[in-house]
Write a structure and sequence with these properties.
The chain is built from 25 helices and 15 strands. By secondary structure, the protein is α+β, with helices and mostly antiparallel strands. Among the domains are: 5-149, Beta Polymerase, domain 2 (2-Layer Sandwich); 150-235, Hydrophobic Seed Protein; 415-463, no CATH class. The strands form five sheets. It has a seven-stranded mixed sheet. A two-stranded antiparallel ribbon has the order 6-7. A two-stranded parallel sheet has the order 10-11. α8 crosses α11, α11 (219-228) runs antiparallel to α14 and α14 packs across α21. The longest helix is centred in the C-terminal third of the chain and has 25 residues, at 380-404. The protein is elongated and about 90 Å long.
């Protein structure tokens, strides 16, 4: 018997078991809930397998709880919410696949059949909910041992498992990062061999797994696994192309792929924001396209931040990432500006700081986090020196912000004021005058106060003979 309180004293599972007994349905809790039970992890998802008609059990549970239930009869599944828990019911089944699709052909099966179709041994364990043997563990593939050994492997032939449903490749990597598990060598080999099969998986599903990977406390481990299995060139080739050092004479450059993962690790320690983490992945994405070599100065990547930001719209569309200003615009901004704070350490002028404040806007703090995470080196003395310079710049930036209130400012002189003053219609000239006023404020020539800005506008008008 499984003695974990999570099952023995779980009121929802007890009630489902009682309802199943009333309908004489052999019923089990399976999958991630059981896995997490042994690991001591919290879970709000429950998967129920019913040997018989799972739809009948789902509808009976929904009626008892007086909650709606969603039925997916073609897949033999149902789903409902119960006090914050998401419960999925499925009839025990067999699955078979065709080469061109990861959607299975489903037929009625036994519990053993259902366990055999599971992705990994640690997700194939089942616990009985029926009164006669409540809490009994059925673990035909030694998932409990694999949990103890902290390994991920498939219950059946891994080549067949990943060929049938290639999304399991991404799940294996995400799960390894989530649980800090390793993947067995034979499983890794099968993942590599089945890589081309990812082409039959909808991009949205792949990206969903990448987002889950990115949300773990060690996403770099997952990206390293993708690289080691040659899957990164399929999933995110731009990141894979960052890999590799190069040396010519006494000049060399670091491995920008490993540097990117180090930046990601640094950032993960300070923020859980999904798109800030993606900004870390993309911050150097254009370095391969901007790499140049000079015999005197060595390697350079001038302009990689601007080109990287321009690459993102096409990349986001391909990855089915959101292309809204709030997401794409945010990541572009961070990629484009990620060198700016460090560059200010060479010459910290109020004008340069005001421009940074204006361009970063509400994302200044996230930009600071990214920039600080970007300070990496094997030379610890060098790292500490850069960090000290960065802290000096940050302090100065915040001081200028407190004094000038430049962040997200809008010039007090609007286009309407310009048109009314000079009797102009909407035109490029109005935009030029407005831009000149904004530049004067950023340069510190005038304050963003109405009368001072109005007088400056009149001076510009004279230059345009208005």
């Amino acid at each position: 018997m499984v003695q974990q309180d999570g099952v023995m004293h779980h009121p929802i599972l007890r009630q489902i078991g009682e309802i199943a007994d009333a309908f004489q349905l052999e019923t089990y809790v399976v999958g991630g809930f059981v896995r997490d039970l042994f690991l001591g992890r919290t879970s709000k998802d429950i998967d129920i397998v019913c040997v018989g008609d799972g739809m009948v059990l789902a509808e009976a549970v929904a009626k008892y709880k007086e909650v709606p239930v969603s039925l997916f009869k073609s897949f033999g599944t149902a789903m409902l919410q119960w006090d914050g828990w998401e419960i999925e019911f499925v009839s025990a089944r067999k699955e078979s696949y065709q080469l061109h699709s990861r959607n299975p052909n489903v037929s009625i099966g036994t519990l053993s059949d259902d366990q055999m179709r599971r992705d990994f041994t640690i997700n194939a364990m089942a616990i009985s909910l029926n009164k006669k043997d409540y809490g009994r563990l059925l673990d035909p593939f030694n998932g409990q041992k694999d949990l103890a050994d902290r390994v991920i492997k498939t219950p059946c032939d891994p080549g067949r498992t990943f060929s049938d449903d290639p999304l399991r490749i991404m799940r294996a990597i995400r799960l390894a990062a989530q649980l800090h598990f390793s993947i067995t060598p034979e499983t890794l080999l099968a993942m590599t061999a089945a890589g081309d099969r990812l082409g039959i998986v909808a991009q949205e599903r792949i990206s969903e797994e990448l987002h889950k990977l990115m949300a773990t406390d060690r996403p770099s481990y997952g990206f390293k696994l993708l690289f080691d299995t040659n899957l990164l060139s399929i999933v995110l080739p731009e990141l894979q192309k960052l890999s590799g050092k190069e040396q010519i004479g006494c000049h060399s450059h670091k491995d920008n792929f490993l540097h990117t993962l180090e930046v990601l690790d640094n950032l993960v320690n300070h923020s859980s924001k999904l798109w800030l983490r993606w900004a870390a992945i993309f911050h150097d994405i254009a370095k391969p396209l901007t790499k140049k070599f000079d015999p005197i100065h060595g390697f350079s990547f001038h302009g990689h931040e601007d080109l990287g930001a321009r690459m993102l719209p096409k990349l986001f569309k391909r990855m089915r990432f959101p292309i809204s200003k709030e997401v794409l615009g945010y990541v572009q901004k961070l990629v484009r500006l990620h060198l700016r704070p460090i560059a200010l350490a060479k010459e910290v002028t109020d004008t340069a700081i005001r421009r940074l404040l204006y361009e970063a806007g509400d994302d200044l703090e996230d930009l600071f986090l990214l920039c600080r995470a970007d300070i990496t080196s094997k030379n610890e003395v060098k790292v500490q020196q850069y960090l000290a310079n960065f802290d000096k710049v940050k302090k100065r930036v915040l001081a200028v912000e407190t004094r000038d209130k430049i962040r997200n400012f809008q010039p007090v002189i609007t286009g309407a004021v310009i048109m009314e003053t000079f009797a102009l219609k909407p035109s490029a000239q109005v935009g030029l005058i407005k831009e000149a006023i904004k530049e004067a404020i950023l340069e510190g020539k005038i304050k963003n106060e109405y009368q001072e800005a109005f007088n400056y506008m009149l001076m510009i008008g004279k230059q345009y003979a208005l």
